[in-house]
Amino acid sequence: VPLQAYGGGLVQAGGSLRLSCAASGRTFSSYGMGWFRQAPGKEREFVAAITWSGSRRITSESVKGRFTISRDNAKNTVSLQMNSLKPEDTAVYYCVADWRGWGTSEGDFGSWGQGTQVTVSS
Q1: Cα–Cα distance, 23 to 18 (Å, whole number)
Q2: What is the pLDDT of residue 25?
Q3: What angle do CA 91, 98, 48 make, to 5 degrees?
Q4: For burial by CB atoms within 10 Å, which of 13, 19, 22, 80 has the most?
Q5: CA nearest 2: which of 16, 21, 30, 20?
Q6: In this predicted model, what pLDDT tens digit does every residue of 73-85 receive, in sequence order?
């Protein structure tokens, strides 16, 4: 499924950003969705995921309590609300999807968006 992420930008530490990801097609509600990120010089890491129904969510320990994933199946979008941002949250954020699947590993998702840059200044 084609994915288009947007909402990245530059923010000061302690600030907030909301990333969104729009998906094409009429079967969005059957896709588990998620977010990964990759900081400069580091491996890509899991951030958050939500099941196709929205009934289950999981976030990484590094963002728990600060980031919230949600979805709107009527609008074919998934969002990542990021609060209390830290400089170490600086990364390219990728929206991901998988048919009736979800998880915390890269291999759990078959579709990847192009990424959106988030920069948190200290």
Answers
A1: 16
A2: 78
A3: 40
A4: 80
A5: 21
A6: 999 999 999 999 9
Q: Can you read off the two tokens belonging to residue 96?
A: 């991901």
57-59/45-50 β-pairing = antiparallel
Q: Which residues contact 48 (CB under 8 A, 6 or more apart)?
A: 34, 35, 57, 58, 59, 60, 63, 67, 68, 69, 80
How does strand 17-23 pair with strand 3-6? antiparallel
What is the C-alpha separation between 115 and 92, in angstroms, rounded? 6
- For residues 108 and 98, the answer to whether their CB atoms sit within 8 Å is yes
CA-to-CA distance for 7 and 19, rounded, in angstroms?
Answer: 5
Count the Cβ atoms, other than its own, within 10 Å of residue 12: 10
Q: What are phi and psi of 40, to 5 degrees?
A: -55, 130
pLDDT in tens, 26-70: 788 899 999 999 999 999 999 999 999 999 999 999 999 999 999
